[in-house]
Amino acid sequence: MPSNLEKYKKDLENLISLGDSLLNAIQFESHPTEFEIQVKKVLKEKYDEFIKKIPSFRDKYQHWYSESLVVIKLLLPDRIGDFVKLYEKPKARKSIEYGNYVIEDYLQNLVVTSGYGDRKVGPEAAISQFQQQLYILKSVQKRFESSLFDIRQLVQADVFDSELESA
After folding, report:
1. Short-list 119, 149, 92, CA closest to 30
2. pLDDT digits (tens, 9 = 90+) for 6-61
3. What is the pLDDT of residues 104-148, one digit of tens each?
4. CA 144 to CA 167: how far, in whole Å?
5. Can you tell me the distance from the alpha carbon of 148 to that of 153, in angstroms, rounded to the nearest whole number?
6. Which of 102, 91, 95, 90 is nearest to 131 (CA)?
7. How far apart are CA 101 and CA 122, in angstroms?
8. Which residues, including other chains, have CB under 8 Å from residue 10's CB and lie 6 or more apart?
9. Nearest-angstrom CA–CA distance, 48 and 39
10. Is the separation of the CB atoms in 105 and 1 below 8 Å?
């Protein structure tokens, strides 16, 4: 029977894999032509099959965010503020620019133009925000591998599970 630690590692791997798929999705949705050129160079005739497997970012992101948020709260609590900041609109934001465009803006398909109608910022600005969220989640994986990771709680949970099974 796999330990809780192994289950957590597997669940985290699945969450990271979904995050990687969502990164492809947001890049494809924001820059379809450039994405096709770059990916076709690598995948060649397998490109069409690959594209069919890319999820819709807007459909899958909230699920990914909610699960990732819980994992980060538990295992990397010092980074929770950074993770949330990349998603939520700042309350004191007076203008929207590339540097403060967040994933919540992307999900609403927000495009900001200047007074002359020139496009200032659009959904593509959220790509780097999502990449940072994914990197934060991936750093949780390193905690499992690090000797500094405190596994006492996980071991204790395994002991409790074993005691329950034997009772």
Report:
1. 119
2. 888 899 999 999 999 999 999 999 999 999 999 999 999 999 999 999 999 999 99
3. 999 999 999 887 878 889 899 999 999 999 999 999 988 877 655
4. 30
5. 14
6. 102
7. 8
8. 2
9. 10
10. no
Question: What burial class does residue 58 get, using C-beta atoms within 10 Å of its C-beta: 0-12 exposed, 13-18 middle, 19+ buried?
Answer: middle
Q: Which of 162, 148, 159 is nearest to 75 (CA)?
A: 148
Closest C-alpha to 1, from 156, 145, 165: 165
Query: Closest Cα partner for 111 from 93, 131, 128, 126?
Result: 126
Task: Give the three-state DSSP class for 114.
Answer: coil
**Cα–Cα distance, 150 to 154 (Å, whole number):** 8
> Where is 121: in which H helix or E strand?
strand 119-121
Which residue intervals of 86-125 are DSSP H helices?
A: 103-107
CA distance 109 to 130: 15
3-state secondary structure of 90: coil
Its pTM stands at 0.83
Q: Which two tokens stand for residue 77?
A: 């609590």
Q: Which residue has tokens 């990349």?
A: 86
Structural element, H or E, at residue 112? strand 112-113
